[in-house]
Amino acid sequence: MKLIIATIKPFKLEEVREALTEIGVRGMMVTEVKGFGAQSGHTEIYRGAEYAVNFVPKVKLEIVVADGLVDQVVEKITATARTGKIGDGKIFVIDVAQAVRVRTGETNDDAL
User: Fold this and answer.
1) Taking the CA of residue 63 as centre, how many other CA atoms within 13 Å lie in the half-sphere pointing to its CB?
2) For the whole model, what pTM was predicted?
3) By the 8 A CB rule, do 9 and 88 touch?
4) Per-residue pLDDT tens for 8-33?
5) How many CB atoms lie within 10 A of CB 4?
6) By C-alpha distance, which of 109, 21, 13, 25 is closest to 60?
7) How confident is the model at residue 49, as a pLDDT?
8) What is the pLDDT of residues 59-103, one digit of tens each?
9) Domain extents for the chain?
């Protein structure tokens, strides 16, 4: 099993969710986050005053999938979330040692 952590632009969330549902992803956790990467934030003007926006709003997806589905999920997120502009996000893939479904006690792949 693998944990896929992806940060994407917020307006891409629904499109990514639909694309992942089509390939068989049955669940994910979504968190609104702020951060910066290569773009290091930006400046905006509000009521005539310029101010720095150091942290850019993003959405973090956490998805645990069986090993056989990892490449397909990563490809689908990449293709769907890409705008071609700076700040499209990142994807990390991490090994998962154990998973347990609390309600039934099912473990590992059965818990997914």
Assistant:
1) 29
2) 0.86
3) yes
4) 999 999 999 999 999 999 999 999 99
5) 22
6) 13
7) 76
8) 999 999 999 999 999 999 999 999 998 889 999 999 999 999 999
9) 2-111
CA angle 22, 34, 72 (to 5 degrees): 25
Say what the pLDDT of residue 77 is.
98
- CATH number for the segment(s) 2-111: 3.30.70.120
CA distances from 18 to 9, 13, 14, 86 (A): 15, 9, 6, 23
Q: 35 near 70, Cβ under 8 Å?
A: no
Let me know: does 7 contact 33? Beta carbons within 8 Å: yes
Name the more confident of 26 and 55: 26
**Cα–Cα distance between 29 and 52 in angstroms, integer?**
30
Going by their DSSP bridges, the two strands 42-46 and 2-8 should be labelled as unpaired
What is the rounded CA–CA span in Å between residue 28 and residue 108?
16
Distance of alpha carbon 77 from alpha carbon 28, whole angstroms: 13
